[in-house]
Amino acid sequence: MTFEKILVTGAGGQIGSELVPFLSDVFGRDRVIPSDIRSNSADSRFLKLDVTDRASVDLAIDKYKIDTIFHLAAVLSANGEKNPELAYKVNISGLYDILESSIKSRVKLVITPSSIGIFGPDTPKENVPIETIARPVTMYGITKLMAEHLGNYYHARFGLNARGLRFPGLISYKTPPGGGTTDYSIEMIMEAVKGKSYQCFLREDTRLPMMYMPDALDCLLRLAEADETRLKHRTDFNVSSFSMTPKQLEMELRNYYPSFEVTYRPDFRQKIADSWPGSLDASAAVSEWDFHPNYDFKATTKDMIANLKR
Ligand SMILES: NC(=O)c1ccc[n+]([C@@H]2O[C@H](COP(=O)([O-])OP(=O)(O)OC[C@H]3O[C@@H](n4cnc5c(N)ncnc54)[C@H](O)[C@@H]3O)[C@@H](O)[C@H]2O)c1
């Protein structure tokens, strides 16, 4: 029986801070244990847990009788290029600890988000299928690609129900993004709402796949609850709601804030973005677990503005 006790690692991050209340609403507050290497004193359930400390991971899984893990602890793309060693340690050794602890305990299901970062400059640019050329050029992408393979390996070798999906850039307003290459989208909307101008770190024509956080949370739940007999894929589902460029976002924001101005000064993140595709083929997620995003580009921008104004 899964979902009796759910551990969320990296719960203080952009996704975790929204996934914890979401899962608590669905399954009940007592069933969700949020954890992170950074402490969050506001939530009495919160557990301080470093996923690279195997003994502590073992202890937490045992103590709370965990059967399901949403493993979100990670170092993202831009931060990973600043500190590749840390990215390797957290994204690979941390996942290894979670998988090893899981097969030695009662954990049945481990969900680990992957990323469009697994693709590289040799990958086709548009409507990219799941199986394609994937030669990432960032430490983040390398670790995420290996994470997909590790999940498949632990399923094939040990029967662990490891699942995952490749998130595109995620847009949300509750928690600041954690050092990714698509962070510009959130920053640009925030600055527009504040009545300020924005200096974008990507070129204006950099087209990338994106998704609004409510759809990302829905994806994680659908994948976790998906009927095993329908799954032909396991750890590498492509998901995306829409694709956009910084310029398109600037123009959309100008519909709300006519004097909003953006300047473009690409930095090291441009090279990362240039290695990623512009759009994904998400048909496997549709056919295997009914992926169904509700927010397109315009709806996402509108909802972000409405919430940031509150
Ligand atoms: N946000 C996005 O746009 C996006 C896109 C694609 C994939 N993802 C994936 O989703 C997952 C969650 O991403 P996010 O955006 O919430 O990231 P984030 O950077 O906002 O949060 C990650 C959290 O992990 C924690 N952490 C770091 N090292 C840790 C350790 N050793 N032990 C425990 N916790 C540790 C951090 O404190 C942070 O709170 C990651 O696997 C990421 O690769 C995110």
Counted up, domains total: 2
CATH superfamily of the largest domain, please? NAD(P)-binding Rossmann-like Domain
Terminal Cα span: 40 Å
Strands of the widest sheet, in order across it, are: 3-2-1-4-5-7
Strands, count? 14
- Label the overall shape: globular
The level-1 CATH class of the largest domain: Alpha Beta
Radius of gyration using CA atoms only: 19 Å
What this model shows, in words?
- The protein is built from eleven helices and 14 strands.
- It has 310 residues and is of the alpha/beta class.
- It has two domains: 6-169 and 211-238, Rossmann fold; 172-210 and 242-278 and 295-309, UDP-galactose 4-epimerase, domain 1 (Alpha-Beta Complex), CATH 3.90.25.
- The strands form four sheets. Strands 3-2-1-4-5-7 form a six-stranded parallel sheet, sandwiched between helices. A three-stranded parallel sheet has the order 6-8-12.
- Helix 2 (54-63) packs across helix 4, helix 4 runs parallel beside helix 5 (139-158) and helix 6 runs parallel beside helix 8.
- The N and C termini lie far apart (40 Å).
- 47% of the residues are buried.
